[in-house]
Design a protein that fits this description.
The structure is a single chain. This protein is of the alpha/beta class. About 45% of the residues lie in helices and about 15% in strands. It has 19 helices and 14 strands. Strand 2, helix 4 and strand 3 form a beta-alpha-beta unit. The longest helix has about 30 residues. The N and C termini lie far apart (about 70 Å). Bound molecules: iron/sulfur cluster. The site of iron/sulfur cluster has 12 residues, from helix 2 and helix 9.
């Protein structure tokens, strides 16, 4: 068997078939999308920043064709008395690992694995345990095996405080306890790789701890609309049906418990019918008073806070679009924060001004908007009264869809605007936009913060404005549709 890397070992722990396919049929893998790439980039930035916890170390630069060289260089650095090495590279028993930060402490070598996440996850123990196994195999005396992750309680004041930004969690005892498990699993993986493709069916392991990148291959027997699409049905229950050979909605046994909404989804699909309760929709519409504002925010978050008073992964509103409907008149207002500048105060001022004529302010899924505005009110007490007056005028447009007063089979049991919109207004689509969903908008705004090319900046700003405007225009169209059906 050729060399196994740490990430391959982690893959094998999740599913032997995933490891086997990765090594033998790599082309079947789905490549990471932009959002996943963005997460990797954040991980890299966080890793580099965490090196400052142990400054002035020697860095080994990874390159797939320089692994032997890097192993030799690590050995040489250790022998020459280097105290801190970043990406220290080791091999033992054909397992290759790179240690984010290797530091010589007073009691021995210390391993620090850096993650950009905000908390410890169960999979991290195995990640660090395999590093411990390999380093111990290289004869290193390890005194600490620890996880370094982002501390979400940290609030930036002035310059970044690296020590406060990170939390170091000592996992040495559990990593030592975990060694027999790691050795056993390594053996099983090596034996498995010497054989033909393992016959493993799909299951919860396809989702946890990480979504597997071979699902396109392994899940191709699942029909386009199946028991896996029943909204809010737990994965455990979906697999319960699957394991009984039930894939299509029509085959679900009558005694299988579904909630009322799930049953409605199944019934509407099987009978090719929609469900509309005009009285319920009418009641919802009666509470709306013109001028009606229809508003939507975009937020972004950063692992490494850029602004004063910002916390890691805190959601910061960066943009809004507002349509105001008054009789036949439809006006549009918008705001987009300038790159490199905290957008919150200007956004709050502009929103207060733009919404002041609105008697009702419609949002889609009120919890999110309410939280964002409440946080702005806490941050700017001088504007709190005006911001709370916005909250008092908010009405949630999701209500008729969540209560299933308005349900079409195209919504597939969901009341998310991403399904409600194409179901009600199929001619309105995000397909032609360069930024077509909230995740992409969040990534684009984060990228703007460090961009320097003016043309690129203007292009992204224009894409962001178009995307957000379409969001509230979609709400205008949904409102029209509701009026039509009553
Ligand atoms: S999709 Fe599921 S079964 Fe297939 S390799 Fe991945 S985890 Fe294993």
């Amino acid at each position: 068997m050729s060399r196994l890397s740490k990430s391959q070992f982690m893959r094998g722990l999740q599913c032997h078939k995933s490891l086997w396919l990765y090594r033998n049929k790599y082309d079947l893998r789905t490549h990471p999308n932009e959002a996943q790439e963005a997460i990797f980039d954040i991980g890299t930035d966080v890793g580099i920043l965490a090196q400052q916890l142990f400054p002035e170390g020697n860095e080994i630069i990874y390159s797939s064709d320089k692994v032997e060289e890097n192993i030799a260089k690590t050995k040489q650095l250790i022998e020459s008395g280097t105290k801190t090495i970043y990406e220290a590279t080791f091999i033992h028993d054909n397992i290759l690992v790179m240690v984010d930060i290797l530091h010589k402490g007073k009691d021995g070598w210390e391993i620090y694995e850096v993650k950009s996440s905000s908390a410890e996850k169960p999979a991290y123990k195995n990640d660090i345990s395999v590093q411990y196994f390999v380093l111990q195999g290289n004869g290193l005396d390890i005194s600490v095996a620890a996880l370094v992750h982002i501390n979400t309680e940290y609030e930036r004041r002035g310059e970044l405080d690296i020590k406060q930004l990170f939390t170091i969690k000592d996992l040495t005892d559990s990593v030592i306890e975990n060694q027999p498990f790691v050795k056993e699993q390594l053996l099983l993986q090596k034996e498995m790789l010497d054989k033909s493709e393992p016959q493993i069916d799909i299951g919860l392991h396809c989702l946890k701890p990480y979504p597997c990148d071979f699902t396109e291959h392994c899940w191709k027997h699942i029909p386009n609309y199946s028991v896996f699409d029943i909204n809010n049905l737990t994965w455990k229950k979906r697999f319960e049906l699957y394991q009984k050979g039930i894939l299509k909605l029509k085959d679900i046994p009558s005694d299988f418990h579904l909630s009322d909404n799930q049953q409605l989804q199944v019934d509407c699909e099987l009978n090719m019918k929609d469900f509309i309760n005009p009285d319920g929709i009418k009641k919802f519409l009666e509470q709306l008073e013109e001028p009606i504002g229809l508003i939507d925010f975009e937020t972004f978050q950063q692992a490494i806070p850029s602004f004063e008073g910002q916390k890691p992964y805190q959601q910061i509103p960066s943009q809004y679009s507002l349509h105001i409907l008054n009789g036949d008149k439809l006006d549009h207002f918008e705001f987009l924060g300038e790159p490199g500048k905290d957008p919150r105060e200007e956004l709050a001022n502009r929103m207060i001004e733009d919404t002041k004529s609105c008697k009702t302010i419609l949002v889609y899924n009120i919890g999110f908007e309410k939280t964002v505005i409440k946080k702005l009110a806490l941050l700017f007490p001088d504007k709190a009264e005006h911001l709370h007056s916005i909250i008092d005028r908010l009405v949630d447009m999701i209500i008729p869809f969540r209560s299933k007063d308005y349900y079409t089979k195209e919504m597939r049991g969901s009341y998310s605007i991403k399904l409600v919109l194409p179901a009600l207004v199929p001619e309105l689509s995000y397909d032609s936009l360069d930024i077509g969903d909230g995740g992409a908008a969040m990534d684009a705004y984060s990228r703007l913060q460090t961009m320097t090319n003016l043309e690129d900046i203007e292009k992204i700003k224009s894409d962001l404005l178009k995307y957000c405007e379409l969001d509230t225009y979609a709400m205008v169209k949904i409102l029209e549709k509701m009026k039509e059906v009553v």
